[in-house]
Structure formats: C-alpha cells, structure tokens
Amino acid sequence: MRSSIQIVDVDRVETWTRYRPGMCDSCQANCCTMPLEIRLRDLVRLGLVDAFEAENEVPARIAKRLQKAKLIDRYNSKAELFTMARRADGDCTWLDSKTRRCTVYEQRPDTCRQHPQQKSPRTGYCAYGARFEPRKVV
C-alpha cells in the first residue's frame, strides 16, 4: 500500500531513511499506514480485550469477535498475530488525521514501540517523510 500522503512509498524499503532519534518529531507518520500485526497482550493494553478474556478464552474466538466488530482484519493462529483493521484511507485507526500523531501513544502496541529499531521490514530504517508546515503569510 502506498502512503496516503504519498511522501514515501512504504512498500519500497530501499527508499527508506536510516532511523535517527528525534526523527518522529518531524515525520508524517508513514509507518502508521503499514499493516499492524500485534499480539493478545497489546489488545489488552489497548482495552480491546480484558485480561480475564485473554486468560480464559481461545485466541481464535477473540479474533472472531474482533473481526465481527471490524477491529481486526485477520488472525494468524500459527504466529498468534492479529492484523489490525485500518481506516478507509489506509491510516491506522489510532492516528489523528490532522496532527498525524498517535492517539493511544502510552498504550501503543509493542510493534509500534519497537519500530524501526527492532520490528521493521528493514531494521534500523523507517519510511520517514518530513511533515509539511504551512507557510506563514506576511
């Protein structure tokens, strides 16, 4: 999928930039347009599944409930990964469309916490795209 803001082609990792601390402060959040695979513990942290359900229910049944509610697109039972649903424009459900910032930052999934240093299609690189600041009219 191509970034909805078309700054960078997130599917072509060779176009990505080597990650440096602080880059996220000026980025358009292109990583938030990629499919997000998360684990059951992330769903608990996000409040989509309660801890009792996570401990006592079969993950496939939880996945079925979350698919019906259109919160996830699919569930990989072998890897025990849930692929989160995205908005029609391809953005993550929790990305604020105006500020391009995460609305659940403190509860964000491990995949997001570890991107791009550990969890990334190209470790150490990100789909960085500079945020455009509106010009000031003098």
Task: Describe what you observe in this structure.
This protein is α+β, with helices and mostly antiparallel strands. It has 2 domains: 1-34 and 87-138, no CATH class; 37-85, no CATH class. The protein has 4 helices and 5 strands; from the N terminus they run ββαααββαβ. It has helices at residues 40-45, 51-56, 59-68, 110-113; strands at residues 17-18, 37-38, 72-76, 81-84, 125-126. The strands form 2 sheets. It has a 3-stranded antiparallel beta sheet with strand order 2-4-3. A two-stranded antiparallel ribbon has the order 1-5. The longest helix is centred in the middle third of the chain and has 10 residues, at 59-68. It is elongated, with a radius of gyration of 16 Å. The N and C termini lie far apart (39 Å). The relative contact order is 0.24. The model is unreliable at 1-6 (pLDDT under 50).
Q: Any descriptors?
A:
single chain; 138 residues; alpha+beta; 2 domains; two-stranded antiparallel sheet; 4 helices; disordered N terminus
Give the fraction of residues assigned to helices: 10-25%
> Kindly, what is the distance between the CA atoms of the first and last residues, rounded to a whole number of angstroms?
39 Å
Question: Largest sheet, order of strands side by side?
Answer: 2-4-3
Radius of gyration: 16 Å
**Which segments are poorly predicted (pLDDT under 50) over 5 or more consecutive residues?**
1-6
Q: How many E-type strands?
A: 5
The domain count comes to 2
- State the helix count: 4
Basic shape: elongated
Q: Could you tell me the mean pLDDT?
A: 88
Structural class: alpha+beta
Helices and strands, in order, run as EEHHHEEHE
